[in-house]
Automatic annotation (TrEMBL):
UniProt protein name: Septation ring formation regulator EzrA
InterPro entries: EzrA (IPR010379)
First-listed, main subcellular location of the protein, grouped into a coarse class: membrane
Regions of this protein lying in the Cytoplasmic compartment: 24-564
Domain of life, source organism: Bacteria
Coiled-coil region: none
Membrane topology, Extracellular segments: 1-4
UniProt KW Transport keyword: no
Keyword line: Cell cycle, Cell division, Cell membrane, Coiled coil, Membrane, Septation, Transmembrane, Transmembrane helix
Annotated signal peptide: none
Primary role: Negative regulator of FtsZ ring formation; modulates the frequency and position of FtsZ ring formation. Inhibits FtsZ ring formation at polar sites. Interacts either with FtsZ or with one of its binding partners to promote depolymerization.
Membrane disposition: Single-pass membrane protein
C-alpha cells in the first residue's frame, strides 16, 4: 500500500516541478519580448527626423525648439528606457527564482514605460512635422502675398482712373505691406519661424481682402456714377409715361423716394475714396432694395390694370345676374308662399343675399367712379374686384340651388297629383279584375288592401286642398301609397295567375281520372283547395299530380300559359 502512496507523491512532485518550469519559461519568453520591444524603441529614427531641422536657420525660435526636442528624446533614452532595462533584468532574476508575481509586476511596469516612450516619440515627431508643415505654408503664403502686393501696386499705377478718388488711399494702403513682407524675411533669417508664420498669415489674409476690394471698387464706382443714376432716370420717365396713360402712382411717391435715394447715393463715393467699402456696400444694397420695392409697386399697378381689364366685364355680368336672380327669387317666393310651404332658411338666405349684393354694388360703383377718373389706382380697383369675385360666385351658386328648389316644388306637386290619379285608376282596375275573374271568391286580404288604398287616396286628395302645401310631405305620402299599390297589384297578379293555371292543369288532367284513382283523388284535393281560395297550394298539388302521370306535362303547360 505504501508503494502506491509513494508513487503518487513522486508523480505529484514531478508534475509540480514541471508546472513551475513551464511557468518560468513563459515568464522568460514574455521578458524577452519586452526586451525586444525596448531595443525597437531605442532604435527609433528620431535623430533622422531631428537632423532635418538643421536645414533651417538654426537660430532664435528654431534653435530653442531643436534643443527642446533633442532634450526630450535624450530624457526618454537615459531615464525611461534605463528604468525599463533595470526592471526587465530584475524581472528575469525573479523568474529564475520562481518569484513569478514579482517578475510579472516588474515586467508590467516596464511595459507601461515602453508605451510611454513610444507615445513620447510620436508627440515629438508630430511637433517636428507640424513645424515643417507650418513653415511650408508660411513660405507659400509669403510668395502669394508678395505676388498680390506687386500686382496691386502695378494695377493702381497702371489703371488709376478705374479707382477714382480712392487711388491715393489705395496707394498708401498698399505701401504699408512692404515693411510687413520684409519683416517676414527678417524673422525667417533670425530663425523665428513661429512669429514669421503668424505675421504672414495675417498679411496674406489682409492682402487677399485688398485684392477682392480692388476688384469691387471699379464695379461700385460704375454703379454709383452710371448704373443707378440711369435707373433713377428710367424709373422717373417710366412713371411719367404711366401717369400719362391714366395710372395713379401718388401713393408710391416716386419723385420723393428718388430724391432721397439720390441723396444716399451721394454719400457712397466719399466712402469708397476712404476705402470704407463695407459701409458703402450697405448703402448701395439699401438703395437697390428700395428701388426694387418701388418698381414692384409700379409693376403691381400695371399688372392690376391688365387683370382689371380682363375680369371687369365677367365680374360685372356675375354681379348683375345675381341681382336680377335675387329679385326673381324674392318675387317668386312672395307668390309661391301662399300655395306652398317654403323653407324659412331659404327665405332668410335670399334676404341676406339681397343685402350682400347691394353692398357689392356699392363697391362696384366705387370701381366705376375710380376707373372713370383721368388717373386711377388700379391696385385698389383690383382689390375691390377681387372682393366681389370672391363672394359673388358662391351667392350665384346658392341662389341657383334655391331657384331649382322652387321649380321642383311645382314639378313635385304635379308629379304627386299624377301619381295619385294613377293609384286611383289602377286600384279600381285591379279590383274589377279580381271580381271579374274565375275566382270562387276574392280573398279577404285584397279587400283590406283596397280599403287601405282608398283611405290613403282620400287623404292625399284632401291634403292637396291645403294651403300652403307641404310638397315634401305629400311626396312622401304618395310614395308610400305607390308602394302599397305595387304590393296590391303584385299579389293580385300572382293569385289570378295561380288560379288560371290551376284550372288549365285540372282540365288537362281530367283525361287521366278514369284510369288512375290516385290521380283523380289528387285533382279533387286541388279543386277543394281552389274553392277555399288556397290557389297556390291547389296549383302545387295539380302540378305534382300531372308530373306523376305525365312527366314534363306541367312544365310544358306553364310555358304555353306564359307565352299566351
Amino acid at each position: 500500500m505504501w508503494v502506491y502512496v509513494l508513487i503518487i507523491v513522486i508523480l505529484a512532485v514531478v508534475i509540480a516541478i514541471g508546472a513551475l518550469l513551464y511557468m518560468r519559461n513563459v515568464r522568460k519568453e514574455d521578458i524577452k519580448a519586452q526586451q525586444a520591444k525596448l531595443e525597437g524603441v531605442r532604435n527609433l529614427p528620431f535623430q533622422d527626423e531631428l537632423v532635418k531641422v538643421k536645414d533651417y536657420n538654426l537660430h532664435g525660435e528654431a534653435q530653442t525648439l531643436y534643443k527642446k526636442w533633442q532634450a526630450g528624446w535624450q530624457d526618454v533614452l537615459k531615464t525611461d528606457l534605463a528604468f525599463v532595462d533595470t526592471q526587465l533584468s530584475e524581472a528575469e532574476q525573479d523568474a529564475e527564482k520562481f518569484r513569478f508575481n514579482d517578475s510579472r509586476e516588474k515586467s508590467d511596469s516596464a511595459k507601461k514605460k515602453i508605451e510611454e516612450a513610444e507615445a513620447g516619440y510620436t508627440t515629438l515627431t508630430s511637433e517636428i512635422g507640424n513645424f515643417f508643415e507650418s513653415n511650408d505654408i508660411g513660405e507659400r503664403k509669403f510668395k502669394e502675398a508678395e505676388r498680390i502686393y506687386r500686382e496691386a501696386k502695378r494695377d493702381v499705377l497702371a489703371n488709376g482712373h478705374q479707382f477714382g478718388d480712392s487711388q491715393p488711399s489705395l496707394e498708401k494702403l498698399i505701401e504699408t505691406y512692404e515693411p510687413e513682407l520684409k519683416s517676414y524675411e527678417n524673422h525667417v533669417n533670425e530663425g523665428n519661424y513661429i512669429t514669421a508664420n503668424k505675421e504672414i498669415d495675417e498679411v496674406h489674409e489682409e492682402l487677399s481682402i485688398l485684392k477682392k476690394s480692388m476688384d469691387e471698387i471699379p464695379v461700385m464706382i460704375k454703379e454709383v456714377q452710371k448704373d443707378l443714376p440711369q435707373q433713377f432716370q428710367e424709373v422717373r420717365f417710366g412713371c411719367r409715361d404711366l401717369k400719362a396713360e391714366g395710372y395713379d402712382l401718388e401713393h408710391i411717391k416716386v419723385e420723393g423716394k428718388l430724391s432721397t435715394l439720390k441723396g444716399k447715393l451721394n454719400l457712397v463715393e466719399p466712402l469708397i475714396s476712404r476705402l470704407d467699402l463695407d459701409e458703402a456696400k450697405d448703402i448701395l444694397d439699401g438703395i437697390n432694395a428700395e428701388l426694387d420695392d418701388m418698381l414692384e409697386l409700379v409693376e403691381h399697378e400695371v399688372k392690376s390694370k391688365t387683370k382689371v381689364d380682363h375680369e371687369k366685364d365677367i365680374i360685372t355680368d356675375d354681379l348683375f345676374h345675381a341681382k336680377d336672380l335675387n329679385y326673381t327669387l324674392r318675387t317668386e317666393i312672395d307668390y309661391l308662399k301662399e300655395y306652398f310651404h317654403i323653407n324659412e332658411t331659404d327665405m332668410h338666405r335670399v334676404q341676406k343675399f339681397e343685402h350682400e349684393i347691394e353692398n357689392m354694388i356699392d363697391v362696384y360703383d366705387d370701381i366705376i367712379s375710380e376707373t372713370s377718373k383721368s388717373m386711377a389706382r388700379f391696385s385698389e380697383v383690383l382689390d375691390n374686384l377681387e372682393y366681389i369675385k370672391q363672394n359673388i360666385g358662391s351667392i350665384n351658386e346658392e341662389q341657383n340651388q334655391i331657384q331649382q328648389y322652387l321649380i321642383n316644388l311645382r314639378e313635385d306637386e304635379t308629379e304627386a297629383r299624377e301619381n295619385a290619379l294613377l293609384i286611383q285608376d289602377r286600384k279600381e282596375e285591379i279590383h274589377r279584375e279580381l271580381f271579374g275573374s274565375n275566382l270562387t271568391s276574392v280573398p279577404e286580404k285584397f279587400l283590406v288592401m283596397k280599403n287601405e288604398l282608398d283611405i290613403e287616396v282620400q287623404e292625399i286628395h284632401k291634403y292637396f286642398k291645403r294651403r300652403p302645401l307641404n310638397v315634401q310631405y305629400i311626396k312622401d305620402k304618395v310614395n308610400r301609397a305607390v308602394i302599397l299599390m305595387n304590393k296590391y297589384e303584385q299579389e293580385s297578379y300572382e293569385v289570378l295567375q295561380n288560379a288560371r293555371l290551376t284550372e288549365v292543369m285540372v282540365q288537362y288532367g281530367n283525361r287521366y281520372r278514369k284510369d288512375d284513382p290516385d290521380f283523380s283523388q289528387m285533382l279533387s284535393e286541388a279543386e277543394r283547395l281552389f274553392r277555399e281560395n288556397r290557389y297556390k297550394r291547389a296549383l302545387d298539388i295539380a302540378r305534382n299530380a300531372l308530373e306523376k302521370v305525365e312527366p314534363g306535362a306541367a312544365q310544358r303547360i306553364e310555358k304555353e300559359f306564359d307565352e299566351h
